[in-house]
Amino acid sequence: xxxxxxxxxxxxxNGVILDMCGVLYDSGEDGGTAIPGSVxxxxxxxxxxxxxxxxxxxxxxxxxxxxxxxxxxGFNVSVCDVFSPAPAAAAVLTERGxxxxxxxxxxxxxxxxxxxxxxxxxxxIGDAAEKFTYQNLNNxxxxxxxxxxxxxxxxxxxxxxxxxxxxxLDVGPFMKALEYACDVEAEVIGKPSAGFFHSVLxxxxxxxxxxxxxxxx
Length: 217
What we know:
- It is a single chain.
- By secondary structure, the chain is α/β, with parallel strands linked by helices.
- Helix content is 34%, strand content 19%.
- A four-stranded parallel β-sheet has the order 5-4-1-12. The chain has a four-stranded parallel β-sheet with strand order 6-7-8-11, with helices on one face.
- A hairpin with a 2-residue loop joins strand 9 and strand 10 (166-169).
- The two termini are 34 Å apart.
- Mean pLDDT is 88; it is low at 1-8.
């Protein structure tokens, strides 16, 4: 007898949340390349009655720059459809009155323009790539260790990711180093944090059982 559970479940799906890197495109020094068939798949979803959002742990560029790159690959994507950790982190910092020391890629700094960064009382770490020098990590360590109650935010916690020239370390190993050195547990903003996905669902006006998520995390 055929299994009809998937058919019944699919009938209640009103929205789709798609991961980006590794699902729709492979990243690389040239900006990345679309995975065959992914542009057409996104177009079909957009033409359907389903609500569509994109989730990414991209922390090397602002959403505007990131979306411009995706459009060059042929994707029909708008900034308002993309959810990434940096804007979510900026909202948390403002809500809690926190002033961050930022250890992030230079291209991400515009996402934090509205946040007060004087006399830091927390640290935000993202995929800083070549910015992960001993000096920069030690500066973040000194901020944290000097706080009575250290607060560390990590924009994701991935171990590594794939680019066209091979695998590269993600933010997770550096987050773990600061956690260990400062005896603190990072607050993760981004995939796979449940709060991050719930913020996407709120924007879609859907409950978890009404959505389908395709992610590598």
